[in-house]
Sequence to fold (298 residues):
Amino acid sequence: MAHILGIGVATLDIINIVDHYPAEDEEMRALEQRACPGGNAANTLHVLKQLGHHCDLATVLAEEPDGDRLKNLLTQRGIGTDTCQRRSGRTPTSYITLNATNGSRTIIHHRDLPELQASHVANLPLDRYDWIHLQARDTHTTSRILQTLRSRQPSHRPISLEVEKDRDGVDMLFGQPDVIIFSRPFVLGRGYDEPEAFLRGIHKRVPGAILISTWGEEGSWAWASRDGLYHAPACPPPQVIDTLGAGDTYNAGLIHTLANGGTVTQALSNATRLAGHKVGQRGLDSLDISLLQNDGDN
Fold:
């Protein structure tokens, strides 16, 4: 299995499970509450760890009690935190309302902590990693991190980038990763009502990358430079229980398969299958990894 570095955000998630979404000014009692690590990068690494990979996280952790708590929770999940940076500030916290009726989640996020800087990434032992995965956050900071990785990483070691939000200047990042995962809201915000035309257009600009677009209940698409367009249908569960972290689970299934030598077709199938399974259960623990197809190592 691979040694994977995730670069992005770790949050403390406070999840309130309710029997319906509250109306404005309504007072209600939560059915259940739990606190756990969250954030795209941390969630993806949690799933990759369950899939057998060795995972480290590079993020900023606050130097205060909640930062210590978050660090301990990540360590309990088997995610390496020696690659994190401690700085003064408050721990990023997501207050999540999870509707038990339909599995929808509403997130209120508070962040008062600096972004991870490229100078920290430059001092990490990057040669130990087989795969590096990033979130596209502050565009200029992410660009500098990507440039640092490219200057330090051998060209055959893949870098993947998740593009969830359309931030100013984000297009400057597209020429650097080997795999780019675009969210459905990002594609829709660019004026496309389906992923194929969007992927074709991006492919003309970055012909060497594997381009992915997730599309919810319609599955996901990929454009691979040698073979063109692929599609994998969604794998919905009998009942939607919890959609929180479904995209992060998808990313983990994709990275897992590609890092193990699987094809793009296998990667799309595994990612959609694993994400579909996840929304049929509460939380990210104990995912059924037997759902995945054999990859290149089997």
